[in-house]
Design brief:
The protein is α/β, with parallel strands linked by helices. It contains 13 helices and eight strands. α4 crosses α5 and α7 packs across α8.
């Protein structure tokens, strides 16, 4: 019996090893990713010790907009909006440190404070004294914190399903626990898992195309990005947003998909009650990333607001 158990254990271990080898997902080569997902070498700008992947389009003397993407995303989430807005705005979007083609931050710091430092440095580097900010999810949290702490630099504020309030049962000032299953992403990133992770962000599964899933997966496989994603989660210590939100002076538009499966539209009330003069536009039939799911429809209220 003991011998049989040993054989069974060895068999299971071998199966797990074989399965792990079969599922193992290495990083993709950076030159290949840059050739596919960047426009030119001029897209890369050194800011605060980080080589940022940046796109800057539209007239340089037009009103500036800076766009901030969400967790696990990239500047590509904004491309339909950027193309439309670039006719009469200077539109700047970039991969946050630890994401996309920017890749890991050499400091290893993925706190909100570091994100604000990088955003400030980018605006300074590009000669943008004042801009309207558009942020989605975690990018929304960075945008509203910047608006609260640097009001003179923010013209208008658009928050798309912003993050910032602690979930029920969680608290502020606490180091979050990263699930062990998420840590496995360092080694395994099958396409079905990426699709499953993105599904709650889309109200209509048909709009989550194979090309979109492939783009997200490819950029998560950029060297060092998976470790950086885990580090950002580990360092996401939330501060009580109440006093900061009340300091915001910029006119603020909240844009929220009514079928957001990641941050429900009910959370909009928290922002409306704290940001002076803010207003909400609800988007029927859309989810967490309306700028991807229905670019033309979701841009209409934003364009009107920016006027």
């Amino acid at each position: 019996m003991k011998f049989a158990l040993v054989i069974l254990s060895l068999g299971l271990a071998a199966a797990l090893i074989a399965g792990g080898i079969w599922l193992y997902t290495p990083d993709k080569a950076r030159p290949d990713l840059e050739a596919r997902y960047s426009d030119a070498l001029t897209d890369f700008v050194a800011v605060a010790g980080v080589r940022l992947h940046v796109r800057d389009s539209g007239p340089r003397d037009a009103p500036a907009i800076v766009m901030l993407h969400g967790f696990g995303s990239s500047l590509h989430t904004w491309e339909p909006w950027a193309e439309a807005l670039s006719a009469d705005h200077r539109v700047i979007r970039f991969d946050l440190p630890g994401a996309g083609l920017t890749g890991p931050d050499p400091t290893g710091d993925y706190s909100d404070r570091r994100s604000l430092e990088v955003l400030t440095g980018l605006m300074d580097r590009l000669g943008v004294a004042r801009a309207s900010l558009i942020g989605n999810s975690i990018g929304g949290r960075i945008a509203w914190r910047f608006a609260a702490e640097s009001p003179a630099r923010v013209e208008k504020l658009v928050l798309i399903s912003p993050d910032g309030f602690a979930a029920p049962g969680a608290g502020y000032g606490k180091v979050p626990e990263v699930p062990a299953s998420f840590r496995l992403l360092r080694f395994i990133l099958p396409t079905p898992f990426v699709r499953m992770s993105l599904a709650p962000a889309y109200a209509d599964p048909a709009r989550l195309t194979d090309d979109v899933v492939a783009r997200y997966r490819d950029l998560m496989l950029a060297p060092g990005v998976r470790d950086a994603m885990i580090a950002r989660m580990e360092q996401a210590v939330l501060a009580d947003p109440d006093p900061l939100l009340r300091r915001i002076q910029a006119p603020t538009l909240l844009l929220w998909g009514e079928k957001d499966g990641m941050i429900p539209i009910a959370n909009a009330a928290d922002y409306l009650s704290r940001i002076p003069g803010s207003r909400l536009v609800a988007l029927p039939g859309l989810g967490h990333v309306p700028q991807e799911e229905a670019p033309a429809v979701s841009l209409e209220p934003v364009r009107d607001f920016l006027k």
